[in-house]
Input
Amino acid sequence: MILRIIWRLTHRTPALPPGPAWEHLAARVSHGLLYLFMIGMPLTGYLGTKGGGGFFGFPAFPNTALYQWLVTDTLGLTWDAWRKPFTTFHFLSGENIVWVLIAVHAAAALYHQFYKRDALMRRMWF
Output
């Protein structure tokens, strides 16, 4: 995801095809939400998981000095109080919202490609 964000910040996006303002707004909002979930899902998964195996080489968050300082010492929270909002976001977005967003995004791309025939796929490719 880090590489994707770097690419996005350093390269221009293709121009939006001609269309009504609501389509352009919907495209911007859906892309923003996709980025939110692509960043939020792994982050909330890490911050809300107590597993002993760690996370891609990182120690489990409750086993870090940052957890001890931030959650226990500064905020005075228990593990269950800390993890509840993270696991709620992770569960709701992973089980429901993201799949709907992906389906709508794919349907919009197919709509542009086959109904509007505005070469959206060609503009996205290169």
Q: What stands out?
A: Residues 32-51+58-125 form one domain.
